[in-house]
Amino acid sequence: MGGAMSSNNNNTDDASSASSLALAEGFDDGQVLSLLKSQQVKTLGLSSRAEMEAKVSEIRLPLDLTLVRSDIKNSLRDSHHDDGSYVPLLIRFAWHNAGTYDKDTNTGGPNGSTMRFDEEANDPENAGLGKAMRVLEPIKRKWSFLSYADIWMLAGCVAIEASGGPHVPFSYGRRDFTEEEALQKNSAATGSRCPFGDGRFNPNKSRLPTADRGQDKSAPKGCPMHVLEKPTIDGIRGPFTRMGFTDKETVCLILLGHQYGRCHADVSGYENPWYSFDPAHYNIYEHGLGYLSIYNFGVAQGQHRKRITAQGKRQWEMAFGGGEPFMMLPTDMALWWDPNYQEYVKAYDRDRVQFKRDAVVTFKKLIELGCEDMLTQERR
Question: Is 274 an annotated catalytic residue?
């Protein structure tokens, strides 16, 4: 970071000018220029810091992130990646960065971009996410006035909308922790720079949920599924409760995320897409079938069959024609096994419009965990 910017503007009562300059405080020249360009301010011929500051003081707040959003959207296609799209990857990336939040200690979450550090990057739950960081690195270089933390969360919002989902309003202002700041923030809870190592519901000590914690071996024979599968259900409810989510919000977030993408045997031990017809697009359609219908027409009807993968993972599959089967993880099945979760799945299946509304609110809550009083919503 460069030195703090000081205003040469004599109008000290101009709150807009003052706040614009405060926004750029500590930016180096490159970051200031990227800020100006993002707001479509002409920068040709600017040669001194004073000239840059004068232009910054003219910026209208809050910021308009249209150009940044556009560049992220243009980076989503890659014919060599799964189903030709980075959409599922970037949604997962945003979720895994934010999903470490602990409301009791106010550690983890989307502020700090601590996945830059080895402890969190090497969390087994984050396998494959290094590619997401590489995809977004050119965005960070071009729009360097934004933190990694902001760009990573914004990418999740853009991916949802660009794939046919709802617009998620974005608020900026997250910070990138230095190693010292990260250690100061997290070491008391985890002993390291990262929110990793103290997870109580994951055998790898990750704060993120694990896909399967197995069955309760002491459960009585013939007991209901929510009793038999209590360890796996607790492995969902525990982390989401730690973050501050209700059961309804938990169901909403899992349904939102798991309509996208596929699993890979060499990454997680699981394989195949959740929704084979269109895994790279928002497919919880307001009218018609789509991913959410699989619960009512598949799981409820006993159409999914358990299969043990070559890596020893249990997953459930429903064949449809000659294509790839629809896959469900134990965490997906848990939304049906648990009576409370199941009620919300059914309610969202009946009212897809309400699901879309709730998805916006809940995803926005996810990417703002622990960021209270530091964010400003973008201008539209």
Answer: yes
In a domain? residue 166: yes
Instruction: Note the pLDDT tens digit of each residue in 302-344.
Output: 989 999 999 999 999 998 777 899 999 999 999 999 999 999 9
User: CA-CA distance, 154 to 202, in Å (whole number)?
Assistant: 27
Residue tagged 């949604």 (tokens): 91
Q: Two tokens at 73? A: 């959207």
- Residue-wise pLDDT for 162-179, tens only, equals 999 999 999 999 999 999
pLDDT averaged over the chain?
Answer: 94
Which of the residues 96, 258, 281, 304 is marked catalytic? Answer: 96
Helix (H, G, I), strand (E, B) or coil at 271: coil
What SS3 state is found at 20?
helix
Q: Is residue 183 part of a domain?
A: yes
User: In Å, how far from its chain's centre is CA 47?
Assistant: 39
Domain that holds residue 147: 66-196
The count of residues in the chain is 380
Q: Are 369 and 244 in contact (CB under 8 A)?
A: yes
Query: Annotated catalytic residue: which of 95, 143, 152, 274?
Result: 274
Claim to verify: residue 190 and residue 81 sit in the same structural domain:
yes
Q: For residue 62, what are its two tokens?
A: 């809050």
Report the number of distinct structural domains present in the chain: 3
Q: Is 157 inside any structural domain?
A: yes
Is 95 an active-site residue? Answer: no
User: Read out DSSP for 180-245?
Assistant: HHHHHHHHHHHSSSSS-S--SSSTT--SSPPS-----TTSPTT--HHHHTHHHHHHHHHHHHHHT-
- Whether 3 has a pLDDT exceeding 90, the answer reads no
Based on the domain organization, do 233 and 186 belong to the same domain?
no
pTM of the predicted protein model:
0.94
**Residue 328 φ then ψ, to 5°:** -135, 135
